[in-house]
């Protein structure tokens, strides 16, 4: 492998990891507040449609990104209302939102562009850096910021408290519901960043291809920690990059090679059993005033 | 001492079907310990939750320093100088001590945490109140006694003048209790008012200045310390005279029923949670396992009752190794089990009392016919008999288990396990959260079982229970039984020292000759506390 090829592999891997990593970072905030968000996949479908739609409509990819973040936050808000306020099972709500998002994006595509399964190409794109989408490089400062917010700020301490022991948080006068809403909405907003790095030039039905779930796996593999989640996302992303770059050069049927990142996810998670510890109150609705 | 620090007047709180507090009045002066005692469900906790803003009363008034106030939520309670040490600690195990203390009252600049300032303030409070804890330690790595100190520091940090302790001694060793009471005295001197909720009457008599007894939502009486005696308080609590001592039956100890040999069990976290346990229990004998919770007791009992994977060793029942047997085979061979968590493992809460009473025998005739179809009449008839015999207070045998009080639920389990006529009874925390009346009943049942020649393995966090029921006592520490005693040859204090570990106890024995009594206990508790952090 030549040197330029190696650098290309490095940056390409970053670009491919970024959508997973941004979503995983968001998921850290949701889960640390105590809400499991498996709607990431669906939110990503909506944000990746929104960024294309808004970019074309407003003739700016930056405005497209802005609205993708808003759209992601909005779907996440639905998840928060349903699970935090109405205490519906978080998995059920997440599954419902995934199905809803899949249909919603197709419906909007049909309405706006007259085609159900794909949009026209979006000519408004982010600047390139080293031959890839420059937004991918934002991952590094944002990951550090996420770590700082979670461990060094009042908000982060309170968010983690709510995810571990909401009853204790309540007795200390913290706003349990408010903090959980915030955590969930951050996870939706970060899916907007995922859309910006996934494929902002066109939306095609099915293009997210399970990245929301992979992000969730990366977050768990990363032990509910921002830096861990990003490193795990990079593992999956680089595995995928390796597949893309060398698929044709390996004498194995491509279908098997394509499975590689997913098999890696399963193996890695199976190896984690009993080792990682989720926030103690993760996935459990909090009902005020109950013993 | 004329204006009380706190006065609650005519507090009434009704829940669907229950009058939890009926015109309750309660006051507290600065510099006193006022004990609030009563059975489970008598309304102590409800009253304190009202004080802490977790419930709002239907009627009644609260005054602090003579000023009427309304407390709508815990934040306001904290603001009014009310602090509560909850029975179940409100701590975050993976966080540090410092983080746990400051949550909700953080110092910050532009949202970024500042830790030095609060750390200094907390160190001052620790010095003043005899409450030393390592601030950087994680809660999950420090013993329960220290965790409780963190809870106290938490409320002192918030400037509490009124401190409510909800059953604070339930989880402590005698030495830790002693330390806690020292802190109480320290805080009294500083003019704080302490509300001490407990049902351990010895402790109440030791520390309280006044004692208020609550029963069925009503204040029965407030006693001055000097007029209070143990039988009087117990009688006021229960509403009838109570026998406080258990009568031990005279019975000959027979052959070895259970033998555990070098048992080791690996915890999911990788270390040996049971690390080489040897002991035996004979027929007609109660073997008590004393120890601070989390030292391997639960895993040990589980390994005897169920086929959980063990790393090493053997468990022998009546001469046969049972480690490979499944639960049914073990039960059929004569093991009964009163599990420590009755809601998770002891009962099917939505099922009827009758169904719960036949669990474990449900597959046998007469409860099913040859086609394994349930015989409902046989089940109900059996249940009626047992309910009568074990004095289970229930509207009918078809009442779901969740509708019973904790004490009666526990009686259902005890009744079921004993009607299987076991050779070995495993009793894990048999009276936890159970009222005095039911406790007395269950203790008598365990003594009856002993009298009938059954072997009993008793595990309890309540040292008084261990002391009053056992014939032999093994002290478990970090997965090993570090010392075994004949009941007649030991004291509660001695057991307490060993509960904090062998080394501490030996050191104690060495120093014992020179030091004074109280002084010794203090030192030991300090060492016991800091020992685990290193």
Give the CATH superfamily of the largest domain in chain B. P-loop containing nucleotide triphosphate hydrolases
CATH architectural grouping of chain A: Orthogonal Bundle
What oligomerization state is this entry in? heterodimer
Q: Please name the two chains that share the biggest interface, counting residues whose Cβ lies under 8 Å from a Cβ on the partner chain.
A: A-B, 22 and 27 residues
Mean pLDDT of chain A, as a whole number?
91
Provide the number of structural domains of chain B: 3
User: SSE string of chain A, helix = H, strand = E?
Assistant: HHHHEEHHHHHHH
Spatial order of strands in the largest sheet of chain A:
1-2
CATH topology term of the largest domain in chain B: Rossmann fold
Number of domains of chain A: 1
Major beta-sheet overview of chain A:
2 strands, antiparallel
What is the CATH class of the largest domain in chain B? Alpha Beta
Number of helices of chain B: 19
The tally of strands of chain B reads 22
Total number of helices of chain A: 11
Shape of chain B: globular
Number of strands of chain A: 2
Spans of chain A of at least 5 consecutive residues whose pLDDT stays below 50 are none
Search tags:
heterodimer; A: 291 residues; mainly alpha; ABC transporter involved in vitamin B12 uptake, BtuC; two-stranded antiparallel ribbon; globular; B: 534 residues; alpha/beta; Rossmann fold; 3 domains; 6-stranded mixed β-sheet; 19 helices; 22 strands; 36% helix
What report would you give on this structure?
The complex is a heterodimer of chains A (291) and B (534). Chain A is mainly alpha-helical and 291 residues long. Chain A has a single domain, classed as ABC transporter involved in vitamin B12 uptake, BtuC, CATH 1.10.3470. Chain A has 11 helices and 2 strands. A two-stranded antiparallel sheet of chain A has the order 1-2. In chain A, helix 2 (40-58) crosses helix 8 (176-198) and helix 9 packs across helix 10. The longest helix of chain A has 30 residues, at 3-32. Chain B folds into 3 domains: 6-238, P-loop containing nucleotide triphosphate hydrolases (Rossmann fold, 3-Layer(aba) Sandwich); 256-502, Rossmann fold; 503-534. With 534 residues, chain B is of the alpha/beta class. Chain B is 36% helix and 24% strand. Chain B contains 19 helices and 22 strands. The interface between A and B is medium-sized, with 22 and 27 residues.
